[in-house]
Amino acid sequence: MSPFLLLALLGITVPRVQALTCYWGTLASVKNASELPLQWTTSRKHCEEGWSCQEVLMLMENGPQVYVVLIKGCTQAADHEDLITQHRAGPGVSIASYTRVCREDLCNHLSTSLPLWAPHPPTALGSVRCPVCLSAQSCRSAAELTCPAESTHCYSGHLLLSAGNRSTHLRVQGCMSQAGCNLLNGTREIGPISLQETCDSEAMLTCHRGVMLRTSQDLTQKPVTWSANTEQLCNRGEVCQETLLLIDVGLRSLLVGSKGCSKARTQDSQAISIHSGPPGVLVASFARFCTSDKCNSAASSSVLLNSLPRPAAPAPGDLQCPTCLSVFGSCTQNSDTVMCPKGTSHCYQGHIALRGALDNQFFMYHSERKMGKNSM
Ligand SMILES: *[C@@H]1O[C@H](CO)[C@@H](O)[C@H](O)[C@H]1NC(C)=O
Ligand SMILES: *[C@@H]1O[C@H](CO)[C@@H](O)[C@H](O)[C@H]1NC(C)=O
Ligand SMILES: *[C@@H]1O[C@H](CO)[C@@H](O)[C@H](O)[C@H]1NC(C)=O
């Protein structure tokens, strides 16, 4: 007999999963190493039912400076015991993290940087000297310091750290025990923080990154907000892109948007294309490529809507077609039949697969639509 059934027979109700209260706050800041260990207090927040409490502490040490990131809050990530990871061991630049996800009120109660911080015994110095810098701005006035004996190489790179909709660009110069652009040593994520690294100063372009998918009745008329809440560090030769695709079958419309880095060879350019209609099924797109930091910043679908042809309402013809536009589904149950406008001669039915967008994210959708023209 299941324990729940037994409890029910005994007249005991099983309590619902409690919503937790968690410590809540963030800190991301370059500190003088002499200020560590740090202590902090944070505010509290009531989480949604079923969510856990999370805490993440990341320390990046670089000579006299330490970059500290602290994130506390509610999360849907899987619970796990406290975990300390040394992502890049010193001497020289080092990165370590402490992460924990737990399911009790205020269990994310770490209040000092001590688990990750031990004062170092003085290290024997070698003969290599490197500029040492840790800054969200620039490293133009970096001091040159003598490296520890085992650090025989100078590192110079950029990190992009993103969590939720916030990201920080960090310039790093310092001593390392190996050559190359591998400060992160394979680390891509620390809890909710994603990390990217580049040492190619010409590949320093940052772009907005995100995908949007909307279906509604009036997307050809009413502009919708188009924002991307993360950023991406591009590879050498890439540019920023933003693309919107609109498909409208009259009773329903679909809008797909994508922002990110692109390998497109095009430099700065912007284009609106009308692939089909009107009259009949409308398929139109907006595509922009640009080459300055975060330039793919269109904030609304009006960049496309304002350029759509707006013919006067067409007179109805004598053709009737089933109409449906379905993402991730099929059109069998819910096709309404409509009277097609004059100038259309066929009913269109088909599937369109969209591919690309960002990395591995792609959409496929199925549609069966009214008012096909002869070609599409
Ligand atoms: C760090 O703190 C020490 C001692 O408080 C101070 O002497 C030093 O100038 C500080 N360094 C920086 C870079 O602020
Ligand atoms: C790099 O990562 C590997 C495995 O994650 C680890 O064993 C190694 O110690 C790391 N190297 C440094 C220099 O931190
Ligand atoms: C970032 O996300 C937080 C919570 O998820 C939200 O309150 C805030 O408005 C967002 N900020 C921006 C600029 O989107």
UniProtKB/TrEMBL annotation:
UPAR/Ly6 domain location: 46-109, 127-203, 228-298, 318-361
Q: Which GO terms describe its biological process?
A: cell-cell adhesion via plasma-membrane adhesion molecules; cell-cell junction maintenance; leukocyte cell-cell adhesion; positive regulation of neutrophil degranulation; regulation of integrin-mediated signaling pathway
Q: Name one Pfam family in it.
A: UPAR_LY6
Query: Can you tell which superkingdom this protein's organism belongs to?
Result: Eukaryota
Name assigned to this protein: CD177 antigen isoform X2
Compartments where located: Cell membrane
Name the keywords, alphabetized.
Cell membrane, Glycoprotein, Membrane, Signal
Q: What is the lineage of its organism?
A: Eukaryota, Metazoa, Chordata, Craniata, Vertebrata
Q: Which GO terms describe its cellular component?
A: plasma membrane raft
Q: Which residues form the signal peptide?
A: 1-19
Organism from which the protein derives: Delphinapterus leucas (Beluga whale)
